[in-house]
Design brief:
The complex is a heterodimer of chains A (410) and B (390). By secondary structure, chain A is of the alpha/beta class. Chain A folds into two domains: 259 residues, Thiamin diphosphate (ThDP)-binding fold, Pyr/PP domains (Rossmann fold, 3-Layer(aba) Sandwich); 137 residues, Rossmann fold, CATH 3.40.50. In chain A, helix 8 packs across helix 10 and helix 12 packs across helix 13. The radius of gyration of chain A is 22 Å and the shape is globular. Chain B has two domains: 219 residues, Pyruvate-ferredoxin oxidoreductase, PFOR, domain III (Pyruvate-ferredoxin Oxidoreductase, domain 3); 130 residues, Alpha-Beta Plaits (2-Layer Sandwich), CATH 3.30.70. Chain B is 29% helix and 20% strand. Chain B has eleven helices and 14 strands. In chain B, strand 9 and strand 10 form a beta hairpin. The chains are: A alpha/beta (410), B alpha/beta (390). Chains A and B meet through strand 9 and helix 10 of A and strand 8 of B. Strand 9 of chain A pairs antiparallel with strand 8 of chain B.
Chain lengths: 410, 390
């Protein structure tokens, strides 16, 4: 008997391996985090998360309030209120569903609600398309949401746990959107290590709403009308909270490594074959897979190219990224998004990277922008070769178009 | 820089919004007759206006466009040549949506500027209501009851043009009577209104208010906190629930007084106040229950005392009280403090009864729109008579 108890105890401390999709990995993280309230409204590709959570609840593996709302706006409003009364919440959407929730998305950071949302990245309508594009999640980039992009199912699970830890930290209390590329991540199954519950319990304390708990024993009024005498001070408070996120994210990743034994290195961006690189390409999400393959191929051809995968977009790691990129002769940013009419007609990420570099010390690097992979289009080896050659040309001082569409029929 | 003119119009929210707008428009249009540019605006943060809450309109005029821009660069004027109070009860001070604390009615008035009040009271009565000012200013009374002119179905009583006529008299550099008459004919196509403006111009007079005159109280104020002193998450701690009160005679504790916001009292919204007959009260609770501002304190013996720091003067208590003359709404100009009627009654019941009877019998009529249906209509002939005879 004693041996059996010991075996069971050992079992609780042991990680399991499962073949699951990125969406399912997020659902498993919700189970491990013992989320209290989940709201759902179907839209592809996010719906794969809600379906798996529903299964876990129906199998009795997970205990939570599971509410199917009548639309995304209500879906996000319900968890906002649940979080205000002290519930750990999970929510998510995709594409225009996320946009339909926009009013709820804007009020959430101001009310300091640590809502964790999975954004199954999807092209915005029209045309009605299912494939990935990053404009949906990026639409909230100025509002006080933390935004992170992951590129595999394991990272999706781990990042969801880290997101709860960071968002629910009293110093932060901001919502976090975890972006998972539609199809590439949400719909493909991979082998994922599911951490033992005991480890998760050690890593993730209970959500404590503290002084902001909406409860009869802590009578407060939330979200009153205010005039111009108050608005700037309220915004400044959110600015301060966002300012604190960098340090808290670092703490969380360090603790994650200590408890789970899995390291992500620099939490904010991943570098691939950059040590000796002349030039680098930079992008977010599952673009990393074709990029890494292409980098290996081009290195065989003697082109010393590296890849930087930006993980955290908010907070944007401007200083660290500028310092890292300053080592190279030129940078090509790969945008799976668009920002029509923006400076030099570039994508969102390219303009953020340029801003980060502009205020950095040292000579100004050439930065080219490539719009590609929109609507989930495959980014091919010839595409990446073309980008690389253009960045090399810019590094050699040859004038290149600042923004180029790659993989377009033309 | 040329000369900048500023006029503020303090009015009762929503009831007098159109009237205030008509006056500030009239100022700009009349000044424009002499080529002076100007703007007319209602203060944005007064909206949405609640019934009776003090609100402001402004007219700013410059001798030239650049001078005007000096005025426009400010959210609202910091000092004005003329303040117009469209309701004499505003002389007690104004507390609005737009700022915090009680502002004296004459706060923005510059030295020797003029405060114009529409009222049937004497200068002495109005001076005693207004807070003291460190320098002298002029007080001019335009005889009349508070006007709702321009509010939906209410009839025009010429309050707008009479005030404009007075301005032409006080500040001819801003606009002349001739310019005013011209824009009245252009805007309203009404020669009787032009005549009313001229009559007000001719009859207007003012008295000097000296720094030694007026209400010596320091108005309550509120200092805005710094961003890091404020609570996070747009959350505000609620007001504590309240406590028992002490009987001034027996010193026994009992009853209940809810705690109230010490920095947003709202009583300057009031144009009438309830006076209470504690001897005839049957303790039915209806006034306490129906008061939209929770302004009734429950006394140790179970009576209901309307707290004058919190009462907005809506008159619901009078409307729901089943006992004749137990709750009676009286014009706010009749009172000079916010002290407790119940305490006065407890200390001296016969004295209180005499005071109450005198208040009810001599009450100067006024309306706040819904005391009883038709009241304002009854007053119209008298108001027009005042406009004609001054």
């Amino acid at each position: 008997m004693a041996q059996m108890v010991e075996t069971l105890e050992q079992h609780h401390k042991t990680d399991e391996t499962a073949l699951i999709t990125g969406s399912e990995a997020i659902a498993v993280a919700c189970k491990l985090a013992d989320v209290d309230v989940i709201t759902a409204y179907p839209i592809r590709p996010y719906d794969t998360v809600m379906q798996y959570v529903a299964k876990l609840v129906s199998y009795g593996e997970m205990d939570c309030e599971y509410i199917v709302a009548e639309g995304e706006h209500s879906q996000f409003e319900i968890v906002k209120h649940a979080s205000a009364v002290g519930a750990r919440v999970f929510v998510g959407s995709s594409g225009v569903g996320w946009m339909y929730a926009m009013e709820a998305l804007t009020v959430t950071p101001a009310l300091r609600i640590p809502m964790i949302a999975m954004v199954g990245n999807r092209a915005l309508d029209d045309p009605g398309a299912f494939g990935t594009e990053h404009n949906d999640a990026l639409a909230v980039r100025d509002l006080g949401w933390m935004l992170v992009w992951v590129d595999n199912a394991q990272e999706a699970l781990d990042t969801a746990l880290i997101a709860y830890r960071v968002a629910e930290d009293r110093r932060i209390f901001l919502p976090c959107g975890i972006s998972c590329d539609g199809a590439f991540l949400t719909h493909s199954q991979a082998l994922v290590k599911i951490p033992a519950q005991e480890k998760v319990n050690e890593f993730l304390p209970r959500y404590n709403r503290a002084d902001l708990l909406l409860h009869p024993d802590n009578p407060i009024t939330v979200a009153p009308q205010a005039n111009e005498d108050w608005v700037m001070e309220i915004r400044r408070q959110n600015y301060a909270a966002m300012e604190r996120t960098t340090a808290v994210i670092k703490e969380a990743y360090a603790d994650f490594e200590r408890i789970f034994g899995r390291s992500y290195g620099n939490p904010f961006f991943e570098e691939y074959m950059t040590e000796d690189a002349d030039i680098v390409l930079l992008g977010m999400g599952t673009l990393s897979i074709p990029m890494k393959v292409a980098v290996r191929q081009m290195r065989k051809e003697g082109k010393k190219v590296g890849f930087v995968r930006l993980r955290w977009f908010r907070p944007f790691p401007a200083e660290a990224l500028a310092k890292s990129l300053g080592r190279f002769k030129a940078v090509g940013v790969v945008d799976r998004d668009y920002s029509f009419g923006s400076p030099y007609m570039g994508g969102v990420v390219a303009n953020e990277v340029k801003t980060a570099l502009y205020s950095a010390p040292g000579p100004k690097l050439p930065v080219l922008d490539f719009i590609c992979g929109l609507g989930g289009r495959e980014v091919t080896l010839p595409d990446i070769t073309r980008m690389t050659d253009s960045v090399y040309a810019a590094a050699a001082g040859k004038t290149q178009p600042l923004t180029q569409w790659i993989g377009l029929r033309e | 820089m040329g000369r900048l003119f500023a006029v503020e119009i303090i009015y009762r929210g929503i009831f007098q919004k159109t009237l205030a707008k008509n006056i500030s428009r009239g100022i700009v249009l009349a000044a424009h007759q002499a080529g002076k540019p100007g703007i007319s605006f209602g203060r944005y943060s007064d909206s949405p206006e609640r019934n009776g809450i003090p609100a402001k309109s402004f007219a700013i005029v410059g001798s030239d466009q650049e001078t005007l821009e000096h005025g426009m660069a400010k959210y609202e004027p910091k000092e004005v040549d003329i303040t117009i109070a469209l309701d004499d009860t505003l002389c007690k001070g104004v507390e609005s949506w737009a700022w915090y604390g009680l502002q004296p009615v004459n706060k923005l008035l510059q030295q020797d500027g003029t405060l114009i009040v529409t009222s049937r009271e004497t200068p002495e009565a109005l001076i005693s209501m207004a807070h003291r000012k460190e320098y002298p200013y002029q007080l001019g009374i335009l005889k009349g009851t508070p006007s709702f002119s321009g509010l939906w179905v209410y009839k025009d009583d010429h309050s707008d043009v009479r005030i404009l006529g007075a301005i032409a008299r006080i500040l001819p550099e801003l606009f002349t009577l001739d310019a005013l008459k011209k824009i009245i004919l252009d805007e309203w196509h009404d020669s009787v209104k032009a005549a009313s403006a001229e009559r007000a111009y001719e009859r207007f007079s003012s008295t000097t208010v000296r720094p030694t005159q007026g209400n010596p109280e320091t108005p309550y104020k509120f200092d805005l906190p710094k961003w890091h002193e404020m609570g996070e998450g747009v959350a505000i701690p609620c007001i504590a629930t309240g406590k028992q009160i002490e009987d001034p005679g027996t010193h026994a504790m009992g009853g209940y007084r809810p705690d109230r916001n010490p920095t947003f009292k709202k009583f300057s919204t009031r144009t009438m106040r309830p006076v209470l007959d504690f001897d005839t009260c049957i303790k039915c609770t209806l006034c306490w229950l129906q008061c939209p501002d929770t302004c009734f304190d429950v006394t140790p013996e179970g009576l209901y005392d309307a707290n004058m720091q919190a009462c907005c003067g809506c008159g619901v208590c009078e409307a729901v009280c089943p006992v004749p003359n137990c709750v009676t709404m009286i014009n706010e100009t009749e009172f000079r403090d916010n002290s407790s009627q119940w305490e006065a009654w407890r200390k001296d019941k016969p004295g209180y009864k005499t005071w109450l009877t005198e208040k009810i019998e001599s009450r100067p009529e006024r309306s706040h729109g819904f005391r009883y249906r038709g009241q304002y209509k009854e007053q119209i002939p008298e108001m027009l008579e005042i406009a004609r005879e001054g």
